[in-house]
Amino acid sequence: MDLELVTRHISKLPADDDHPYRTGAWRPQTGEWNADDMEVIGHIPEDLDGVYLRNTENPLLPSMKLYHPFDGDGMVHLMGFRGGKAFYRNRFVHTDGFKAEQQAGEALWAGLAEPPSLTKVGYGWGARGFLKDSSSTDVVVHGGEVLTTFYQCGDLYRLSGTTLETLGKQDWHGQFPSASGISAHPKVDEHTGEMMFFNYGVEAPYMHYGVVDRDNNLVNYCDIPLPGPRLSHDMAITANYSIVNDCPLFWDPEALKVGKYATRFFRDVPTRIGVIPRYGKTADLRWFEFEPTYVLHWLNAYEEGDWVVLDGFFQKNPSPVPPSGGTFYERIFRYLGQEQKEPRLHRWRMNLRTGESTEHDLTDVHTEFGMVNGLHTGRKHRYAYAATRVDGVFLFDGFVKHDTETGRVETVQLPPGVFGSETAMAPRVGSTSEDDGYVITLTSDVNEDKSECLIFDAQDVTAGPVARIRLPERVSSGTHSTWAPGSAIHGWDHVENPIGAVRL
Ligand SMILES: [Fe+2]
Q1: Ligand 1 centre and the CA of 185: distance in Å?
Q2: Ligand 1 centroid – CA 244 distance (Å)
């Protein structure tokens, strides 16, 4: 194994920390590593070419009062594959907030569960206000670079797709909507190189939607007027349309009048799903009404004749009763868990000609954090890969491959104490069918204090991994992941051996 510890950061967290989101699978990682030629059990496929990326929340400093798992600083993990070899890098995203707090040696921003008045810099809602923009939620590849985002609408941080060095903020040639920021979960269309995005906030029109082309030109940006502030987290695209949502889980308007952000589920208010042409304007937006729910994540969408078909995770119980019993921290851990919200894959269908709409569950198996083969983003898909037992925020005890045509669900269960990351589907070089490729996840094994990258044959996931790659250090649990082919990464094809080229 060829390992280089690039930086060992100093953690100021208490040695006897008992916070459930800074211990166990959530223990923050302090080392930044370069690793090549790692220990492999099995065989790394030679037709796997590209990068698997995962973003995690990784605190180094004590919070002011009460830590929330979304407060940690973004740390990205990269597993690169080429020619049957793999390399690993992990780096903090050097956000303005990370740099300022490291310099100060203390928290400067209040966390999500803390009174905003504690914040020493900033005022108002979100990452443009009292909350630190830690860029720790999502990760995508666009314009040849890795981009990280934050769910409360912040900047778009650029990282190298081979070294993970933070390159700065993406400003789209001066056209980035700086006042609003952008939400997590922009969607990249691999066929056109475009990226669709949205943002949301507390002032009318409460949401915007936009498109940047492959060269980072902002080619569309328009208002999405909503009845009030909403908490949309994700969006979807088809080849010709983009899909936004107005779910009836939002801040209580009465509490908001006195400056309190109290989230409430309004059981009698329909879910509204908005469809807008990719290059459409506000007047082109059409809303469809559905059963009340909250959707944290969509899976994918596509067009079928006059219909727009949208798959996502319907929460049967979006507003669970706060648990009783156990310690304060145990109650928080259970309350934040996705499992009790009973999310399951669901299909919403909207007819753009007749205005008709239908919806139904695709399964009763509880899953979330789903992905499709990226070549099918915005195009018809058959297979979904999604995390199981989404306990806490967010511990995945395995994943499923869901066949939405037959309803067949194949389950990969990890051993107790071993948690996976969001699984990504990596098409094989020269793939000939949707599931012709590999499924990749990173594990956090609290029993043996180690992490591995597991690679499964997507056409036979229950056979177990075809390769297990030992990482230099146990990674913390975190949030989102993605796969990008090497052809999407700047510099990937300009060197004969990117693995050698990125060794420091
Ligand atoms: Fe998310």
Answers
A1: 7
A2: 14
CA distance 11 to 138: 24
Burial code (b: 16+ CB inside 10 Å, e: under 16) for 320-341 equals beeeeeeeeeeebbbebbbbbb
Taking alpha carbons only, the member of 452, 473, 474 closest to residue 464 is 452
What the block records as the tokens of 193 is 């190189």
Predicted local confidence at residue 494, as pLDDT:
65
Q: Give the Å distance between the CA of 241 and the centre of ligand 1.
A: 21
| pLDDT at residue 121, as a whole number | 77
Q: Find out if CATH 2.120.10.30 is the number for domain 2-484.
A: yes
Which of 60, 76, 66, 71 is closest to 133 using CA atoms? Answer: 71
- What is the amino acid identity at position 406? T
| Three-state SS at 16 | coil
- The SS3 assignment for 249 reads strand
DSSP label at 340? G
Q: Give the three-state DSSP class for 89.
A: strand
The label of the residue with tokens 């980072």 reads 216
Write down the number of H helices and E strands in the chain: 4, 33
- Centre of ligand 1 from the C-alpha of residue 287, in Å: 23
> What global pTM score does this model have?
0.95
pLDDT value, residue 256? 84
DSSP 418: E
For residue 383, give both structure tokens: 């297979």
Q: For residue 221, which amino acid is it?
A: Y
Give 10-residue mean pLDDT values along the chain (504 residues): 89 92 94 93 97 97 92 97 94 97 96 84 80 96 98 97 96 96 98 98 96 98 97 97 97 86 92 98 98 98 98 92 73 71 96 98 95 98 92 84 96 96 97 98 97 98 98 95 96 61 42
pLDDT of residue 391: 65
* Rg (the chain; Cα; Å): 21
Q: How far is CA 80 from CA 115, 119, 481, in A?
A: 41, 38, 13
Are 412 and 398 in contact by the 8 Å Cβ rule? The answer is yes
Written as six digits, the tokens of 213 are: 């082309």
Give distance in angstroms: CA of 149 to centre of ligand 1. 10
Question: Could you tell me the distance, in angstroms and rounded to a whole number, from the CA of residue 465 to the centre of ligand 1?
Answer: 26
